[in-house]
Amino acid sequence: MSLAKPPFVAGNWKMHNSLAETRALIGGLVPFAAELQDAEFVVLPPFTALAAAAVALAGTSIGLGAQDLHWEDRGAFTGEISAPMLADVGCRFVLIGHSERRQFFGETDASVRLKIPAALRAGLRPIVCVGETLEERDGGRTMDRIGRQLDEGLADRAPSDFPGLILAYEPVWAIGTGRTATPAQAEEVHGFIREKIAARAGNAAATCAIILYGGSVKAANAYSLFREKNIDGFLVGGASLDAASFCGIAREALRAYKEVQ
Ligand code: PGA
Fold it and tell me: Which domain holds residue 100?
């Protein structure tokens, strides 16, 4: 069971939702979030929908975040968005190093390393994603891969940075595939990530750290995943595009959480 932290559930909308769809989805989420108050909800719309989402979320407890950022605060970087811009539009969170950015858009552990302090400087909480490919898992290299992503991405981080960081373990083979890691597979990696945080920032930081699981999470698997000791919540893609299914995940995680309170 998640070291007794209430569930943190973030919805990565990816390249989905017009302004009208954004307002409609948030309109659907608000009543659920009010009912599931013990869970922390965050939505991560595309850049074009952030301002509309901020208006729709005003006065609610649902947090707002973006899916990426540039590591400089400003400058001649055509097409890019900076952390101060995200903070200005109302974001409190930002994804960094999502596997789709790594796979299709040249994101590396080196760019992740630069983006984390940019987010922290602007007061944003980075959600730093790590995960192995199927080839790496089948070749027994999962922990090597995750360890390297953490060592390189977090190389400059001081222990005092860790309360602001959120980690997300997303096995690449489980994203958008309908194939979820088993609770035991996810827990093994989450435990490893927590040990890496303890080694870098101490046991207290590791205990407090929020470590999310992502990859085909839905209401049907959220309960058993959240019962694992080191799984603190979820980064949800496809199932976050529907208010009932997104909140169903939070409801199942809360059920597991409340069983041990
Ligand atoms: P999925 O995506 O839930 O659709 O597998 C998760 C993610 O990419 O964050």
Answer: 8-259
pLDDT of res. 1: 42
214: CA distance to ligand 1 center in Å?
Answer: 6
pLDDT tens-digit profile of 70-101?
A: 999 999 999 999 999 999 999 999 999 999 99
Q: How many CB atoms lie within 10 A of CB 37?
A: 11
Does 3 map to a domain? no
Domain count, the chain: 1
User: CA 206 → CA 3, 129, 160, 199, 261, distances in Å?
Assistant: 11, 17, 12, 9, 21
Report pTM.
0.97
Tokens 């489980």 correspond to 174
Does residue 78 lie within any of the structural domains?
yes
How much distance in Å is there from the Cα of 114 to the middle of ligand 1? 24
Give the 3-state secondary structure percentages of the chain, helix then strand then coil, rounded to 5.
50, 15, 35
Q: What angle do CA 95, 96, 101 make, to 5 degrees?
A: 105
Q: Which of 40, 170, 187, 252 is catalytic?
A: 170
> Catalytic residue at 170?
yes
Locate 83 and state its tokens: 């952390």
Taking the alpha carbons at both ends of the chain, their separation in whole angstroms is 10
Q: Do the beta carbons of residue 145 and residue 107 sit within 8 Å?
A: no
For the domain that residue 151 is a member of, what is the CATH number? Answer: 3.20.20.70
